[in-house]
């Protein structure tokens, strides 16, 4: 498994990691199969979304804040129950296809790390299985 | 990777693709492993749900429309921010088990393509890894 | 594919299955690859979340009940449309990395079965692909 390390800069942040994943595929000469892009955190997620208009990220971020408000009446004492719930709703990992040594994404797709409780040091774990 | 092509007919539509996936498995003689059923779009999703009572699809569709209204105050200019968000919440792909050359689904499970911004020409990409 | 069988005891319940998955990996001597942890049901889900403070589970459970109320105006006659929708939102499966014969989880991560329409007899299917 390969590890990507980075630091987020805000409580809620959506970070394009498509280039990092692309580089891993090239560096490791993965030819054909499936990769799992996995977040080892409980207050962050991984998703796919549009890579063209930045307002899509903004709309997603604002919608999630409204859907799961930080100040909702929660029991958990760390004031980040909203972050755990957003992780479960958006997903902690995504799988992608590699074909002819290339990450197969739709025309408008990018891969995003969803920070729900930053700023923090974060990791993404990536595992390849051939097929 | 194998591609399934089809056309959706409405803005919001839930399409049973279980038969298409079954046929791919038979045609390609995949014996045992995992398949990734992947949507290369940013305004559609893939999910699993009940294949018996059609009202389950209707309830899911109506609930998602109410949860993420199209006319919510969004920035993105194409009037489909709701579709992007529904994609993130429901997921852009699902993985399934193949055993003894057969797709392993629970008794009541079917695989569904979720159209959130149709009608459009759509694709589903399917990749097999043996195990 | 390997099967884990158990019985849930309430309508809504969040059950830690990390130990069961760990045991499967040891028993089957899976060394390195990806495992798919799959629920063959339509009114349950699989997620990852914090394994330390039990109030995180409680907050998730209460939030989902409020987000998708059982008594919402649904068509499906079995009074469990909310359970189907929660399944789609949280996901019916999760994939995990195995490295050096060990399940790779973040420090605070546990794997959870989400019962949305119990009490019932339930199964989890687990499939390994090497990589």
> Which stretches of chain A of 5+ consecutive residues score pLDDT under 50?
none
Number of alpha- plus pi-helical segments of chain A: 3
Total domains of chain A: 1
Oligomer: homotrimer
In angstroms, what separates the terminal alpha carbons of chain A? Answer: 17 Å
> What's the CATH architecture name of chain A?
Sandwich
The largest interface is: A-B, 31 and 33 residues
Main-sheet strand order of chain A equals 1-8-3-5-6
Total beta-strand segments of chain A? 8
- Helix content percent band of chain A: 25-40%
Structural class of chain A: alpha+beta
Strand percentage of chain A: 35-45%
Looking at CATH, the homologous superfamily of chain A is YjbQ-like
Largest sheet of chain A: 5 strands, antiparallel
Helix-strand blueprint:
The structure is a homotrimer of 131-residue chains.
Chain A: E1 2-7, E2 13-16, H1 18-28, E3 33-38, E4 44-50, H2 55-67, H3 81-90, E5 93-99, E6 102-104, E7 109-115, E8 121-130
Antiparallel strand pairs in A: 1-8, 2-7, 3-5, 3-8, 4-7, 5-6
């Amino acid at each position: 498994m390969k590890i990507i390390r980075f630091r987020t800069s805000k409580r809620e942040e959506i970070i394009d990691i498509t280039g990092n994943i692309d580089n891993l595929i090239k560096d490791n000469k993965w030819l054909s199969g499936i990769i799992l892009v996995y977040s080892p955190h409980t207050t962050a997620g991984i998703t796919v979304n549009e890579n063209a208009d930045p307002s899509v990220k903004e709309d997603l971020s604002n919608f999630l804040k409204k859907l799961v408000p930080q100040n909702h009446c929660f029991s958990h004492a760390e004031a980040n129950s909203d972050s755990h719930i957003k992780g479960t709703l958006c997903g902690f990992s995504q799988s992608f296809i590699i074909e002819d040594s290339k990450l197969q994404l739709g025309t408008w797709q990018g891969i995003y790390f969803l920070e729900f409780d930053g700023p923090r040091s974060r990791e993404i774990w990536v595992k390849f299985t051939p097929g």
